[in-house]
Amino acid sequence: MLHFKKEDLLKIAHFSRICISPEEVETYEGKLFSVVHWFEELEKINVEGVEPLTIPHEDRLRGLEDVPYEDDIEPQTILSNAKNPLDGFFTVPKVIE
Amino acid sequence: MADMTRLSVEEVRQSFKKKDFTTVELTEAYFKAIRKHEDLNAYVTLNEENALEQAKKCDVEKSSCSADVLPPMHGIPIGLKDLFCTKGLKTTACSQMLENFIPPYESTIGEKFRAQGAVLLGKLSLDEFAMGSSNETSYFGPVISPWKSQLSPDIPLVPGGSSGGTSAAISAGLALCATGTDTGGSIRQPAAFTGIVGLKPTYGLSSRYGVIGFASSLDVPGPMARTVGDVASMLCAMVGHDPKDSTSIDRPLVPYHETLGKSIQGLRVGLPKEYILGTLNAEILKVYQDTCDALKEAGAEIFDVSLPNTLAALPVYYVVASAEASSNLSRYDGVRFGYRTIKKVKSLDEFYAYTRQEGFGLEVKKRILVGSYVLSSGAYEAYFQRAQKVRRLVQNDFIEVFKKVDVLLTPTTPSTAFELGGSHKNALDMYFNDIFTVPSSLAGVPAISVPCGLSQECLPIGMQLIANFFKEDILLQTASILEKVFKKYDFNPYAYAGGFNGKL
Predict the structure, then answer these.
(1) How many Å apart are CA B92 and CA B103, to the nearest integer?
(2) By CB neighbour count within 10 A (0-12 exposed, 13-18 middle, 19+ buried), where does A62 fall?
(3) Which of A50, B193, B203, B270 has the greatest number of CB atoms lying within 10 Å of its CB?
(4) Which ipTM was obtained for this model?
(5) Which residues contact B37 (CB under 8 A, 6 or more apart)?
(6) B480 included as an active-site residue
(7) Least CA distance to A63: which residue of chain B?
(8) Catalytic residue among B134, B149, B167, B186
(9) Range with the lowest mean pLDDT among A63-77, B72-86, B173-187?
(10) Quick check: helix, strand or coil at residue B157?
(11) What percent of chain B stands above pLDDT 70?
């Protein structure tokens, strides 16, 4: 079975796009190690020939129709929760000098 | 007249008919109670002005037609867990990430209550993004249970979680009933801790549209209230096929009230041996036995049964729920809505990473990290896929057992409500609160928690009934029998303010 290491923590923090400070590394390292170690209990169970279950009613799942919703939400309403919208667009901070 | 804020839906409807009070008077009484118990911190956002306006509208409608033609939830003061999007009213998931988020649309369930003329009192607190079992991870501070231990009345207790604002408010009489969401026990555990009734419907029976997602293959919105009848009323209002939710199931509507109070003669009740752990609290075991005796007395047949993969359910749940959370919460990047860092950044990646570091709380970040790990290459097969396979074994256990029995009886929680800040000794302690509720969540079957006893400290103890897919009617019928038997306990937290002895 796999073992959770500090390098794994830094790697998954990057995957998750979550910055973690050196103090947080210490906090998370122990917590995550014990959680992942606990997951190893699943290794004891024989799952040979068992299909994964992704959702309780997998046989009843259906796709949504590929048509736009006919609702009346104005672009301005959609932008109302965004920081610094400009000319009807979302914006991000300037990162190029 | 009895305290207006402790009446049931049916009692309120009868009072409206007799003109004992108006919807406005009832709504005002609830806001008065909310202000009196502000210290519980149950509400995140109040909706007072709109609620009174809606109450006035209800009174006008009542004066112009017969009460019998009005929808069952008309004029009923309700709360919504702050995970349900409310158009024009702040919806935060109790996270700094959504501190000022005002949804441009309404959840399907919120819309159904609005359409029936329910009066929305406000939005109720929860653990941040519904991740927790004590309502201590809310960005807006913990919720305090209205219940006090008679042995140490000065120590605040948790109301359970994640629907802890909902459970505290209903128990304290700050909402007649309210919605919760249940991913691994978040309706049933807080219901058990506060002496109220909480139902997790079959997965797919109630729409998730407009409910902020945590783990999409597990999340189920459901009703919480002080009585089984109120839960049935809410369930009737909440369910129904929703084309906006691809996991919503199209089934004929069931009149859930029809089975309430009906005989359970011949009902087959299973007692799963894996749920009676050696470490189970003796008082909970005693109430479990009392409940079993009550069912037997009412004509049920009792069988010992086994769900062999029960103990594996908890690690499976935390693998699956964390993986789905890491995916669901990737949308919070500070661009279109929500919290945004003000740090000077050198790249967009840095912008996302600081935004998410600052905007999410510790427990949420921990689960995102765990979720990203179990989904990463190398760990995917070993953890995530294996967990999904064991999930099928857990579901198969339920499918098999329901060929032999109609209902399973288990305790809802391994303990009564614990002290605020009292369950953080290690990373796993809090997770074990969900040990009895998680298996049915993984399987997708419905389950209900009903208050069935009080501990020596005078804290409520809830019992859980689990049934086969879409058998909510049997759950409510059985729960209504238990409610009648255990009516001798008053599950009002303020009934024992002067002491426990002599009240029973």
Answers:
(1) 10
(2) exposed
(3) B193
(4) 0.94
(5) B146, B172, B174
(6) no
(7) B246
(8) B186
(9) A63-77
(10) strand
(11) 97
Residue written as token pair 């007072």: B48
Q: Looking at the partner chain, which of B246, B372, B392 has a beta carbon nearest the beta carbon of A15?
A: B372
Specify whether B125 is catalytic.
no
Assigned token pair, B21: 């009070």
Residues from chain B contacting residue A39 (CB–CB below 8 Å): 315, 318-319, 374, 383, 387
Does residue B162 have a cis bond before it (omega within 30 degrees)? yes
Q: Which residue among B8, B15, B62, B81 is the active-site one?
A: B81
Beta strands in B276-397 (DSSP E): 301-305
Estimate to the nearest angstrom the gap between the alpha carbon of B379 and the chain centroid. Answer: 32
- Of the candidates B78, B77, B329, B289, the one whose C-alpha atom is nearest the C-alpha of residue B180 is B78
Q: Are the C-beta atoms of residues B247 and B219 closer than 8 Å to each other?
A: no
For B260-306, give the DSSP string.
TT---TT-EEEEEGGGS-TT--HHHHHHHHHHHHHHHHTT-EEEEE-
B7: left (phi over 0), alpha (psi -120 to 50) or beta: beta
CB B130 within 8 A of CB B419: no
Query: Is B425 annotated as catalytic?
Result: no
pLDDT at B67: 83
Chain B's closest residue to A18, CA to CA, is B353
Q: What is the pTM of this model?
A: 0.96
SS3 label, residue B182: strand
Instruction: Give the residue among B165, B199, B176, B153 at the shortest CA–CA distance from B459.
Output: B153
A19 and B362 in contact by Cβ < 8 A?
no
Active-site hit among B162, B167, B233, B248: B162
